[in-house]
Write a structure and sequence with these properties.
32% helix; alpha+beta; elongated; 10 strands; two-stranded antiparallel ribbon
Amino acid sequence: MRDSSKPSSMRLRRGGSKQNKVFSYNAESPDFPGIVTQVNDEIGNLLKQYKPSEIGIVFIGFDEVAQLFSIAAKYPNLKKVPWFGSDGTALQTEITSNPVAAQFASDVLFINPIFSPAATNEQEKVKQYVVQQIGVKPDAYSYAAHDAVVALALAILQAGPTDDMDQLVNKVKELLPQITTSDKFAQFAATGKFPLNDAGDRATADYDWWLVAKVGDKYDWVKAGTYKGLEDKNVFTPLDVFGGKTYLEELQAVFGGGAGGATTTTTTAATTSATTTSAGTTGTGTAKAGGSNTGLIIGIIILIIIIIVAAAFAFKK
């Protein structure tokens, strides 16, 4: 589990919003009924002003989502709007192994992005080595961490020897954007070469979209599509679980509207940072991107619920 002193957030692009509210709770003694009641009431108030297709809930947390969903299933308003997750909840077996939580996740079309780098020859080598050493397949973020070390190593070697650490750091910072886009880096990178943004993070990244649906007689995670970072667009595929419809078409059928918007939703810096390891915040709001609350300290699990209006949750096709 990755950790950071800052919560991750959801970035909304080309979308409109009018309200934004965040709820929080302490993971050591969570009051899930209390927080779910608050969110249910908030949704009820919004439904008096907006259509279900104009409201969405973004949940950013970890496996505690299954417990929260088990309680949320008893509240009617929370089933009337779509829910969105993050890489912290994507592919969580705690959801699919809990019948009540799984059905709720399926009913609200709970969809989650997770970093999904393109396969490379070096990636296969890294995977085989890790499996040989510890018997576990590395996940996508392990490959990203591997490449961060490779990039730093190449930059340090190119910077040359020096006793001035400040000079070395500045030189490495200067070289990294060139390194990560070079063919030499691509020879060793598990995720291929990539550009950096001004903050030194990946400027682009690909994601897979996963949602919970009933497959046969049980609930399971189903891949709904991909987000292509370089092209800045989502590609959703027809799914048997939706009778041949795509996620966007099912979103429109279940909640009405929505698919006509032009909003792309991605997690912020998901490949280089992540949410805290402990506790919770929730929030409701409209299209102001970024629900990060830097006032939260480590030891608070982050659960951010954002209410999005004006079809801000509709993804760009």
